[in-house]
Amino acid sequence: MSDPFRQHELTAAELRAAEAGEDYEVGLESLSQMQLAWRKFKSHRLALLGLGILGMLLTIAIVGPVVLPYDFATIPIPDKIVYEGRPPSADRIFGETGGLQRDVFRLVVNGARTSLFIGFSSMLIGVIIGTIVGSVAGFLGGFIDNLLMRVVDVMLSLPLLFVILVASRFFGNGNVLLIVVIFGVFSWMGIARLVRSQFLSIREREFVEAARAVGVRDRRIIFRHILPNAFSPIVVSASLIVAGNIIGEAFVSFLGFGVNPTTPTWGNILSNALTFIPLGNWWWPLFPGVAIILTVLAVNFIGDGLRDAFDPRSRAI
Amino acid sequence: MTKYIIRRVIQAIPVLFGVTIVVYAILLAAPGGPTAKFNQNPRITLEMKEAFKKAWGLDQPIPVQYCRWMGFCNPDAEGLAVFIGPNGWPNFLPTPLSGATTGVLHGDFGFSITSGELVNTTITRAALPTLILAGVALFVWLVVAVLMGVYAAIHRYSLFDQAATVFAYVGFAMPTFWLGIMLIFLFSGPGLNILPAGGMTETRLSPPFGSDAYWVYFGQNPIEAISDIGWHLIMPVFTLVVVNIAGDSRFVRASMLEALNQDYVRTAKAKGLPGRSVTFKHALRNAMLPVVTNIGLEIPFLFTGAIVTETIFSWPGIGRATIAATNNFDYPVLMGILLISSALVVLANLLADVAYAVIDPRIKF
């Protein structure tokens, strides 16, 4: 813990110069905003843990399905159906499902790809829409601002998971990309409010005024002067969207309105498990559930770390 | 104060109006429309589909359909007279004035496409089980969250506090339905079969809940009936409230810690008041201010949470009705449920604002 402005220890030469009463130059270590943020982030142990877990999960999601492919059409149907499934053992570490006897590990690994893809790409859509709407509202102000913000109010008054559920049933067709779009379309409102409020405060600041005075065009002011300053709250709230949408997708797929069951996601693996659970197949729902919890925990930890790192009032380095 | 409440109510009206448009637009944009479910049925001809559309007024232009559904238009009138109700007053006015009885504004959500019964009947029938579930859940949620939060704040950094922190993180990251599945395995699986895996009542003991025969049975053995429902409530309630408890116990703790650091608490202690009185009378009451608002905003989500909880535990409520309606493309029922739950969100926002204004005397208007 030290003050960011006093990171530089005086060198021996400087000390001597100071004692002798001579002039000397202080070699201040200069750090960019991002470097400062990274330093603070690194000191947040849970955030680092989260980053590690998320990195591991992303690696599994990218590499896993290549090593352990899951193609619904070509997996052989077992000769004898064992409804109780098989508990975890040495060759099937997460056990086997009841019924069609799928390898749970394989399902979870393949589910990771779909679930994480949906979580992150729908967040991206949400952030893009939210940033555009927020920037337009905050920069233009007046009638358009009012109109857009009322739209946000209305959207936030909808019970969102409910609407997403209905929308997935009507437009989703079990298609991963369509589900991504549906989740994206319903997750921009928070970002829009945030970006708008940032714009309202930043556009009055001196550096924007200065840019305007020297004749910088609106577009450049928005993209080069205002948006970079709104970056940190956007990132923090984006992490919350990822967590929310991963749980949301699991919720929708669990109820059978999300991704088609032939493409495993953590949600629809759980959905199939529900019927078999009274037979004792605990390993079937356990592992996809733990995967969801781990992902959301990791993302939330990273979000906490980012919040602290970007907060100018927290000076932990 | 009254002025403030009136202003907030007036502000809520356009939002609710916008909600009706969004709800209508989503369901309208759905591919296939209400006749989509007939596509798989070879015995239904094109003419029959047209007749179906005509019978339900689905052949009308969209604005007309919306206008009728809302109750601005009189479905029996022609031309500009559609806006005039049977009594000669504008159609959107309350029933005693306008004489109009159809449309959302007059409390009528139309007919279910699947069953043909009034949407109101479908919703009212499903509402009681959901209200029982949500009511009990709300009670458990408030009591546990406040107790946990206050205890953790008083004994800060104790073992309990740290356990509560871990619980908050994990509980918040946990999909509730997963918890529900695991609970079913634990308490009604092959090992420890002590709790019912689903349903609202023991079907071997009593008639189905909500039927006339059930109420006769209820009148004869009220204690048995209530304890039966209570027994079936344990797992669904637990599933429903864990996320809220996880979040709110932290919120109560933070709020309580802040209150405990205030000058008036120090003053009260300095005066020599007993610790218990300081904690509960001075700190807790003030700490509850932000908590009340926060909880008010979260209550409507009990109903969203109920969708999945009711599915897992076969609870015969609004959630199950929603799933059935979504499966069958039953537009009127879905619109009714969506609209009512959106209205609940708006109402909760309003109440939270007003409650905050009422309990916090420092807020001026």
Describe this entry's structure for a reader.
The complex is a heterodimer of chains A (317) and B (365). By secondary structure, chain A is mainly alpha-helical. Chain A has helices at residues 12-19, 33-42, 45-67, 104-140, 142-157, 160-172, 176-185, 189-202, 206-213, 218-226, 231-254, 266-276, 283-310. Chain A is flat and about 85 Å long. Chain B contains 14 helices and no strands. The longest helix of chain B has 39 residues, at 222-260. The radius of gyration of chain B is 25 Å and the shape is globular. The chains are: A mainly alpha (317), B mainly alpha (365). Chains A and B meet through helix 5, helix 6, helix 11, helix 12 and helix 13 of A and helix 1, helix 6, helix 7, helix 12 and helix 13 of B.
Number of strands of chain A: 0
Per DSSP E runs of 2 or more residues, the count of β-strands of chain B stands at 0
Mean pLDDT of chain B: 80
**Which spans of chain B of ≥5 residues are poorly predicted at pLDDT below 50?**
none
Shape call of chain A: flat
Topology (elements, then pairings):
The complex is a heterodimer of chains A (317) and B (365).
Chain A: H1 12-19, H2 33-42, H3 45-67, H4 104-140, H5 142-157, H6 160-172, H7 176-185, H8 189-202, H9 206-213, H10 218-226, H11 231-254, H12 266-276, H13 283-310
Helix pairs in contact in A: 2-13, 3-4, 3-13, 4-5, 4-7, 4-8, 4-11, 4-13, 5-8, 6-7, 8-11, 9-10, 11-12, 11-13, 12-13
Chain B: H1 2-29, H2 46-55, H3 62-70, H4 95-98, H5 119-154, H6 159-173, H7 176-188, H8 212-220, H9 222-260, H10 263-270, H11 275-298, H12 300-312, H13 318-327, H14 331-359
Helix pairs in contact in B: 1-14, 5-6, 5-9, 5-12, 5-13, 5-14, 6-9, 7-9, 7-12, 8-9, 9-11, 9-12, 10-11, 11-14, 12-13, 12-14, 13-14
